[in-house]
Amino acid sequence: MLDIGMSGWWALASLVPIVNLYVLWCCVAKPTGYAISGRADSSMKINTAAYITLPPFFVLIIFLMLGLGHDPHEIPSPLINKPAPAFQLKQLQDPAKTFSAQEMRGKVWLLNFWGTWCVACREEHPLLIQYAKTNAVPIYGVDYKDERATAMQMLDDEGNPYTLTASDPDGRLSIDYGVYGAPETFLIDRDGVIRYKQIGPITEDAWQKEILPRVKQLNQ
């Protein structure tokens, strides 16, 4: 059965008035075409215009339902299996020091884009702390479009799951990585190549089924 979620059902429900309008149009449209019998009785004529437009209408509905059933977290990234964009940013905790992707060569790691302004990031945060405790893969953060003091306060209050956090106050690195929302996380291999992108929070399901198996494979 197609699982489109509650928001999908609401969107699908919005089609109801459209269908009603279409049916109304079919009923009041001037009959055209040919008669079923030889009598010139307009009540028995088939509205061929309705039949012509009906197939495209239902094709549109099918495509909409397929779109509703698509998981937005599975949107492919053009960066998958390509070198991660290079960067060198100031560290959040110690701005006198920098952090670059080049330093991670030879390691499998996660790069997590987040911000204190992001509600989903706050929801993901305790999960990241839980994952970090397993030591399965180091998690590095990029705090973007954020105030340093606010970000530091959040990490102090709610815990710090990151091995290190870089600061991207103007969001330029997020643009380079094609981040259009937060949180987003990239799994990068030993050669600096992006192997997986998680859009949205790393749920327990995504951690167990998507990230950990890839981490184990890349570490072999």
Write the layout of secondary structure elements.
Layout (H helix, E strand, L loop, with lengths): L4 H9 L1 H14 L19 H21 L19 E3 L7 E3 L8 E6 L4 H14 L6 E6 L3 H11 L5 E5 L3 H5 L7 E5 L5 E6 L4 H15 L2
Parallel strand pairs: 3-4, 4-5
Antiparallel strand pairs: 1-2, 3-6, 6-7
Give a description of the structure.
The longest helix has 21 residues, at 48-68. The two termini are 37 Å apart. This protein has 220 residues and is an alpha/beta fold. Helix content is 40%, strand content 15%. It contains seven helices and seven strands, in the order αααβββαβαβαββα. It is globular. The chain has two domains: 5-70, no CATH class; 74-218, 3-Layer(aba) Sandwich (Glutaredoxin), CATH 3.40.30.10. The protein has a five-stranded mixed sheet with strand order 5-4-3-6-7. A two-stranded antiparallel sheet has the order 1-2.
Number of helices: 7
Question: What is the fold named in CATH at topology level of the largest domain?
Answer: Glutaredoxin
* Level-2 CATH architecture of the largest domain: 3-Layer(aba) Sandwich
- Could you give the distance between the termini? 37 Å
Q: Tell me the number of strands.
A: 7
User: What value does the average pLDDT take?
Assistant: 80
The structural class is alpha/beta
Q: CATH H level of the largest domain: which superfamily?
A: Glutaredoxin
Give the SSE string.
HHHEEEHEHEHEEH
